[in-house]
């Protein structure tokens, strides 16, 4: 049988999945890990992992490519040891380190989705523009803070909607929607700094790995990256009582949409402009816009980005399906469709 035609996937709807999770009697660990290494048969590994992790009730989003693995998932605590053993049994992932979420037992993923991709992080680069075996120096939280104190240039290797709710003080924050757009922007913003100390950070470290390789290829001499990203930096600061230089929330790509790192609220509600750093997706499924919404506006607009979406969300589901079917343009559902602060969200047309 063709590996690509082997059907191993979640077969339940959202409501059923939410009900299953609500009835669980055990706690879950939310974690992430990544590794660049050669995988000869990504489809075979994909199917093997799906069978093993589905039995362990693992939920999450995992990307596999010939260049490696990028995983964000949640695992039942009673199955933790079996899960770790399954990961370590894969050649190339022996003793890999996991980045564990700091907020425990929150619902982060509803289902298990393992996809085979061309790249584990889409970057739009040509193969001759980077070498993932030649990356920046990995810094611990203590080393990172020392470099910041000594005046190093800090770069946020994330999208604009991530840095809106949290970032390191004084960081350069490229105004990009995707990682693909961001790499040339970062190089441009660092123009004239090839001899200076550069510090890169992202959520869990994977985007820094590619960015540091890209910058070194383009002649930057002293490139450094935060080991384990914001996730592991936070763990280190808490465990070792180290000063936390990150303000606000760390945006995460799961149903939580953010982890509280400091008590600072640096974001603003996209509807009323009040202090807020709670992201949501528009409740009208054909919009699904990612935006910041306070509790007051959540009640006023019933979880939607504007009154038009609010009215559409109240329509019978069959009518909504007809509208989606008859619409001539592609689906609007995408994390890339995120609001920008200068936009008037209440007047936004879908």
Q: Which secondary-structure class do the elements indicate?
A: alpha/beta
Q: Sketch the topology as an H/E string, one letter per element.
A: HEHEEHEEEHEHEHEHEHEEEEHHH
Low-confidence stretches: 1-5, 330-336
Which radius of gyration do the C-alpha atoms yield? 21 Å
Overall spatial form? globular
Spatial separation of the terminal alpha carbons: 43 Å
Biggest β-sheet: strands ordered side by side in the sheet: 4-1-3-2-5
Helix content: 25-40%
Please count the beta strands (DSSP E, at least 2 residues each): 14
Query: What is the makeup of the main sheet?
Result: 5 strands, mixed
**Which percent range describes the beta-strand content?**
15-25%
Number of helices: 11
Q: Residue-averaged pLDDT, rounded?
A: 87
Describe the structure.
The protein has eleven helices and 14 strands. Helices cover 29% and strands 19% of the residues. The N and C termini lie far apart (43 Å). The strands form four sheets. The protein has a five-stranded mixed β-sheet with strand order 4-1-3-2-5. A four-stranded parallel β-sheet has the order 6-10-9-7. A three-stranded antiparallel β-sheet has the order 8-11-12, with no helix packed on it. It is of the alpha/beta class.
Question: Which key features would you list for this structure?
Answer:
five-stranded mixed β-sheet, 11 helices, 29% helix, 14 strands, alpha/beta, 350 residues, four-stranded parallel β-sheet, disordered N terminus
């Amino acid at each position: 049988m063709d590996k690509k035609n082997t059907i191993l996937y979640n077969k339940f709807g959202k409501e059923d999945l939410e009900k299953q999770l609500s009835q669980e009697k055990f706690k879950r660990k939310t974690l992430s890990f990544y590794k660049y290494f050669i995988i000869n048969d990504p489809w075979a590994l994909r199917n093997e992992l799906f069978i093993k992790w589905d039995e362990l009730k693992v939920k999450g989003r995992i990307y596999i490519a010939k260049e490696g693995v990028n995983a964000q998932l949640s695992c039942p605590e009673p199955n933790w040891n079996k899960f770790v053993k399954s990961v370590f049994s894969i050649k190339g992932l022996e003793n890999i380190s996991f980045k564990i979420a700091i907020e425990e037992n929150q619902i982060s993923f509803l289902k298990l989705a393992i996809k085979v991709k061309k790249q584990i992080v889409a970057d739009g680069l040509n193969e001759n523009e980077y070498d993932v075996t030649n990356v920046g120096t990995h810094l611990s939280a203590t080393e990172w803070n020392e470099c910041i104190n000594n005046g190093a240039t800090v770069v946020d290797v994330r999208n604009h909607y991530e840095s809106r709710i949290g970032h390191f003080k004084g960081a350069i924050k490229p105004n990009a929607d995707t990682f693909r757009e961001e790499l040339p922007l970062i190089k441009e913003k660092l123009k004239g700094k090839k001899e200076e100390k550069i510090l890169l950070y992202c959520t869990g470290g994977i985007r820094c790995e590619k960015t540091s390789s890209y910058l070194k290829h383009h002649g930057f001499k002293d490139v450094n990256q935060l080991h384990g990203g914001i996730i592991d930096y936070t763990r280190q600061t808490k465990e070792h009582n180290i000063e936390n230089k990150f303000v606000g929330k760390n945006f995460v790509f799961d149903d939580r949409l953010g982890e509280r790192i400091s008590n600072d609220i640096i974001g603003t509600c996209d509807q009323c402009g009040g202090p807020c750093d709670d992201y949501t997706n528009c409740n009208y499924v054909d919009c699904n816009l990612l935006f910041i919404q306070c509790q007051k506006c959540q009640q006023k607009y019933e979880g939607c980005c504007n009154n038009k979406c609010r009215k559409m969300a109240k329509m019978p589901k069959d009518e909504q399906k007809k509208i989606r079917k008859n619409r001539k343009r592609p689906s609007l559902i995408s994390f890339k469709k995120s609001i920008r602060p200068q936009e008037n969200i209440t007047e936004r047309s879908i």
